[in-house]
Design goal:
Blueprint: H1 3-6, E1 9-16, H2 28-37, E2 42-48, H3 52-60, E3 66-75, E4 78-83, H4 95-104, E5 108-111, H5 128-136, E6 142-147, H6 154-164, E7 169-172, E8 185-189, H7 195-202, E9 206-208, H8 214-217, H9 219-229
Parallel strand pairs: 1-2, 2-3, 5-6, 6-7
Antiparallel strand pairs: 1-8, 3-4, 4-5, 8-9
Helix pairs in contact: 2-3
Length: about 250
């Protein structure tokens, strides 16, 4: 291996939402354009229980940008991220069922904002749910140790959790607007192109910690209203099923 190849680094934002999510208005074409302009080499589109936005972004991406098809899945025990997917994993299942469904596709399993008390994350809940999260540690490929939208001490607790369990840590923007894309990201050795390569690269990851402003985050309630008017409001867990980009 040449010195140039051995020193190659990648810049990945592994938690990004497009307009396929109920709480974002970011068009895939705009996300792709912004990712390239900001020097990202990898971008995971992780919409809520949908893959169509990720597929669109992947189709639009130029050669210098790898778009990873992902999903943020609402389980009965909190949110889980799946990366390198080709089929939707439905929401409303148990954590174990969602992990198994991601693994069946050869995907990676991540814990997004696991201690954010304002969002449905397993570790933000006391007692049984947090104990279940600890038991899940052996099945997880990475922990989102820094989420660009987290408030309070959730990121510090997530980072400590990753260290305690010997898990790779990532930083991600959790962008719901184009402006947020790449505010937080992960530096990876090499140029991972597959799930296996990404899993290996995450071991040597470096984190760039940025945070979205409250002004930018203030667009999220507006996005939710617009999406509800478009018929793309968030469905209750019991209703997740057939729909655009959703599981049949």
């Amino acid at each position: 291996m040449t010195a140039a190849l051995s020193e190659k680094r990648s810049f990945a934002d592994l938690h990004v939402h497009s307009a396929a999510s109920f709480d974002s208005l970011s068009r895939p074409v705009d996300l792709v354009r912004a990712a390239v302009g900001r020097g990202l080499t990898h971008m995971a589109i992780t919409d809520h229980e949908r893959l169509d936005g990720a597929f669109r972004a992947r189709d639009l991406a130029p050669a210098e940008l790898r778009v990873i098809v992902g999903e943020e899945i609402r389980t009965t025990g909190g949110d889980i991220i799946g990366l390198y997917l080709e089929r939707v994993v439905p929401g409303g299942l148990s954590v174990a069922e969602v992990v198994a469904a991601i693994r069946e596709q050869g995907g990676l399993v991540g814990l997004p904002h696991p201690f954010d008390r304002f969002r449905s994350s397993g570790g933000s809940r006391a007692g049984v749910a947090e104990e279940a999260l600890r038991e899940l540690a052996g099945q997880v490929d990475f922990v989102e140790a820094h989420n660009g939208r987290a408030i309070g001490g959730g990121n510090a607790r997530a980072a400590a959790f990753a260290v305690q369990h010997g898990l790779p840590a990532v930083a991600a923007s959790d962008a719901h607007t184009v402006q947020e894309l790449g505010l937080a990201y992960t530096i990876l050795p090499g140029d991972p192109g597959t799930a296996a390569e990404m899993r290996q690269a995450l071991v040597g990851a470096g984190l760039v910690l940025g945070r979205a402003s409250l002004y930018v985050r203030g667009w999220t309630p507006f996005a939710k209203v617009v999406q509800r008017m478009r018929g793309n409001g968030r469905l209750p867990l019991t209703a997740l099923g057939p729909g655009p980009g959703r599981a049949p």
